Amino acid sequence: xxxxxxxxxxxxxxxxxxxxxxxxxxxxxxxxxxxxxxxxxxxxxxxxxxxxxxxxxxxxxxxxxxxxxxxxxxxxxxxxxxxxxxxxxxxxxxxxxxxxxxxxxxxxxxxxxxxxxxxxxxxxxxxxxxxxxxxxxxxxxxxxxxxxxxxxxxxxxxxxxxxxxxxxxxxxxxxxxxxxxxxxxxxxxxxxxxxxxxxxxxxxxxxxxxxxxxxxxxxxxxxxxxxxxxxxxxxxxxxxxxxxxxxxxxxxxxxxxxxxxxxxxxxxxxxxxxxxxxxxxxxxxxxxxxxxxxxxxxxxxxxxxxxxxxxxxxxxxxxxxxxxxxxxxxxxxxxxxxxxxxxxxxxxxxxxxxxxxxxxxxxxxxxxxxxxxxxxxxxxxxxxxxxxxxxxxxxxxxxxxxxxxxxxxxxxxxxxxxxxxxxxxxxxxxxxx
Length: 433
Prior knowledge:
Low-confidence stretches: 134-142
Largest sheet: 5 strands, parallel
CATH class of the largest domain: Alpha Beta
Strand content: 5-15%
Number of domains: 3
Mean pLDDT: 84
CATH superfamily of the largest domain: P-loop containing nucleotide triphosphate hydrolases
CATH architecture of the largest domain: 3-Layer(aba) Sandwich
Strand order of the largest sheet: 2-3-4-1-5
CATH topology of the largest domain: Rossmann fold
Order of helices and strands: HHHHHHHHHHHEHEHHEHEEHHHHHH
Number of helices: 21
Distance between the termini: 79 Å
């Protein structure tokens, strides 16, 4: 559009190009009229050079390049902004939109989350449609029974070894349930938090189920996909709903597998949305309004070094237990338990267990599967099925290596060089360092 007023102002500016105040007036008039994008960019660049600390002109450049669909130019400008929180609400919204157009959704969500936190009443249809919590999807509208597993049938009798873990759980919830008056007289509540860590496949998840079975409690197994939601705020709501569900159905074991995925170190997180989930988690564990009486909150992790230290504070996961590969005696028990339902004869469990040092429970499963496959192959060739024996298991052991060694290679570095709190003392004892 050709505006006589703007044309007159531009002519005056051409005569006095150093007149910054006039240049600002020209820029302001052009922004009120369509068709001046290129001139707006020209004057905004000049003013930006004159006043580099004035982010108003930076915002104008982002908005104008965005209108021209020059998203790469927008990104160059955004990357030079040292503190995006100093932008106005509209400026932050423009940055979020640029990230969206550049397919950097996580960055866009992070900027939008911070924007809404600073300006709760801010509205932008495009960003709201993409990220804001919608009433139609935000509630977890399911009955408790839909998320409860059946009360597990497994008990401690089905768990080979793990005596230390069993003892901690007994003192944390089983004994308080059996002796409520005695424990109450000492101010001890039923429930609490237990964090199990160690190499994968050593029975942490099964122990959680067996705990619920031992006390005939409800059992809720929470995975990452049960919590995370694309809508801002819904992940925190989902987490709160599961805790509320457990509180309504005590005694209850609330189990978080791979807890490092939900409770990672906030210092390592780039996006504030992830930090909000951890803050909600910590609040549910011991917040002022959180009554977890009768709930045993159990977590399992293969990477305890990735968990935010705040989770280890007393009152949260105040029992942290290293779950090592089963020892010789435990391996004997595990082999015997797992062979119960398989045809077998003449198995020397002590001898077999001595050949499987550092094997996890999952490794023992793998050995038995290999032995079964070999016997089935033989049966199909000869037509004469036979029971498994020690020789079959010994041959299978030669074909399988313990999967725990890779984990210990990583864990050793943390135990030796990052053990100020003593968290990894049990790893050092196991490795005899």
